[in-house]
Amino acid sequence: MRLVPIVSVKEGYILGKSLYNENGQLLIAKNTGLTQSMISKIVSLGYNSVYIASQYTENEIDDIIKPKFVQKTMLLSKRISGMIVSKKGNIHSSLGELSDIVDEIIDEILNSREIFLNLLNVSSYDDYTYKHCLNVMFLSISIGRTLGYTKGQLHDLAIGALFHDIGKLFVPKDILLKPSALSNQEFELMKSHSRKGFDFLKEYTDLSAIIRIVSLDHHEKWDGTGYPQGKKGDEIHPFGRIVAACDVFEALTANRPYRKEISLWEAREYILGGGGSFFDFQIVQAFAQTVNPFPVGSYVRLSDGREGMVKSSNKNFYTRPVVEIHCEQGRKIDPYTFDMLDINSIIVEDIIPDFSYTA
């Protein structure tokens, strides 16, 4: 099984994992041969990538987070957001229910051997805002685990990450979804979501200051060039620093109205390159240890032209996996294993949807 960007999925590919909507209803079952109409439907539902069956491996990729937790978290988040906007309903009861689910999600991640193999696609729904916040929460928990946070700290970090963009509920949708560059006035209105989110959480919930601060700090930058307060360095709460990196990473790897997504590999390199300027270098180090840009089953092209499938990851050296080579100089060959730690001059050049040979 391998993860393939939806733009590279072709008619006839066999779906490797079933697809569901936000209510847990089956959309397309695994092992289904995809037609062009099915692919168009998947695109319309907001999926950026899907798992495709591979003839070279039968390995199953398990969901780190059980779908039932994803669905409950999604629906509760929407319900709570509605209560905050309308100022109606028992928000405290709903937050308590959400808190219990988050604890179960944290247990799932803490008990997982491979933290980041299947987090970004654990919630592929048509509502981008909620999908984004869920993925930022999952990734933030994973970074916190790498940093050695206690379960209590992970809980507060998770809730803060889930509501980091709550202020966008008060920004006009035509600005949020504008496909072109924002005017200066529109950008100032967009930037106001950090302060608005913090203020509304403070006024209408009993969430702690540590949780609320994430909504205020997640656009601050390590060098002081962020907003809304221009904080820098240790002035930014550690939770805000974590969510800042996860927020940018998740946004880069998702389709937006104003640009196309980039690969996990490229997005990871962007975060690493921002260490010490945009992002706390300690957070970036934890990010590098957590985010695997070449999950097992990925098809890759090496800098010497060979093509193969990632068989396993070298811990702490995610950019140098063990690759099963299937193609040399455009020709299919008897596969053999190449550990990229053995030759430093060869790198992964690209993730590819298929091998280049034709027969």
UniProtKB/TrEMBL annotation:
It comes from the Bacteria. CDD domains: HDc. InterPro entries: HD/PDEase_dom, HD_GYP_dom, HDIG_dom. PROSITE patterns: HD_GYP. Residues 107-303 form the HD-GYP domain. It holds the Pfam family HD_5. NCBIfam families: HDIG (TIGR00277). This is HD-GYP domain-containing protein. It comes from Alkalicella caledoniensis. The lineage of its organism: Bacteria, Bacillati, Bacillota, Clostridia, Eubacteriales.
